[in-house]
Amino acid sequence: MPDTDEAGTAPRAAQPRHLIVTVYGLYARSDGGWLSVASLIELLGVLSVDEPAVRSSISRLKRRGILVARRHGGAAGYELSADGLAILREGDDRIFRRERATPADGWMLAVFSVPEAERHKRHILRSQLTRLGFGTAAPGVWIAPAHLHGATADMLRRLELDPYADLFRGDHLAFGDLAAKVRGWWDLEELERHYREFLDAHAPARHRAPDDRTAFAGYVRVLTDWRRLPYLDPGLPVELLPEDWIGIRAADLFFDLRSRLEEPARAYVRKTIAG
Prior knowledge:
- This protein is of the alpha+beta class.
- The chain contains 11 helices and 7 strands.
């Protein structure tokens, strides 16, 4: 059996850059999106990430245009770029959304047409629609719950892909069993496996009373592990999912841990940044 940390959470394989993005998303935006390198190294040290890995991951995020180097009061540090802020805002709407769609909400369909001379953009479009949680209803026809229309339109505009795509909203009128079709449009078995891994890793933390430092480590880990799941499962209607859907239990666990860990974790970060 793997060792666990004080919060009862098995060590995670999250990449350091993913942990850094979580830290920025949780704690930097309210202060202008900037954190000093020294603070990042200290905070990531609590998550067992050493200094060379922090610096390497920061450099990677800088190359990807997520972070921008800035000095504040003589201290070296990084702040979120405009693109980084936009990505995090999009993530807030998805990650912290508890409500699921209902069949009455309808669906959104995305279709796109890319000239042969720009066929590389087809791959970008497919990758981005998959990342947002779209399923494939038919060749070239992508489907998602209708509530994703805003995030999808924002993504297409941000990446300048909107000239190649059309978004439609509608209802499933006929034919066949819609629940069976959903199982074909999304890989629910794979999704169930991810949810089970999340529950196995983080359920023990429900029964611990961590101090501020441990709460910080636990909250960053649980959020980092959780934040990809609402993209794999884009709020699919529970009426169309298998009975006693494991995703409901996983969401209950995440929001319970959030309510318990969020404030002590923030208190630890404030103390750390203040020195």
